[in-house]
Amino acid sequence: MSKMGLFINYDICFGCHACEMACSQEKKLPAGEFGIKIAQYGPHKNINGDWEYTYLPIPTKLCDLCAERTEIGKLPSCVHHCEAACMEYGDMEELSKRLVEQPRSVVFSLD
């Protein structure tokens, strides 16, 4: 069986926190605990003088890529509910190839 993982394109995420909420509800996590957490960088002024925010969804130690969901063919809850469609679940080898095309992206796996 191929190794599965999560691809996140940081250029697209706009910080809606839908992934955090979906994960917390799916896993029934207590307040303050997260399987995926949005880190925010900014506001900062870039060299063009524009103000900029960057949002970084980061899986935590509590993330198991929604093993119960994926075993029955469903997407991880964070991917299913991502409003920006910046997350994808799939084969690690295929997801890793996409990093060349989208350098402000990352691929996560459980190993």
TrEMBL record:
<feature type="domain" description="4Fe-4S ferredoxin-type">
    <location>
        <begin position="4"/>
        <end position="33"/>
    </location>
</feature>
<dbReference type="GO" id="GO:0046872">
    <property type="term" value="F:metal ion binding"/>
</dbReference>
<keyword id="KW-0677">Repeat</keyword>
<keyword id="KW-0411">Iron-sulfur</keyword>
<keyword id="KW-0004">4Fe-4S</keyword>
<dbReference type="InterPro" id="IPR017896">
    <property type="entry name" value="4Fe4S_Fe-S-bd"/>
</dbReference>
<protein>
    <submittedName>
        <fullName>Oxidoreductase</fullName>
    </submittedName>
</protein>
<dbReference type="GO" id="GO:0051539">
    <property type="term" value="F:4 iron, 4 sulfur cluster binding"/>
</dbReference>
<keyword id="KW-0479">Metal-binding</keyword>
<dbReference type="InterPro" id="IPR051555">
    <property type="entry name" value="FDH_Electron_Transfer_Unit"/>
</dbReference>
<dbReference type="GO" id="GO:0030313">
    <property type="term" value="C:cell envelope"/>
</dbReference>
<keyword id="KW-0408">Iron</keyword>
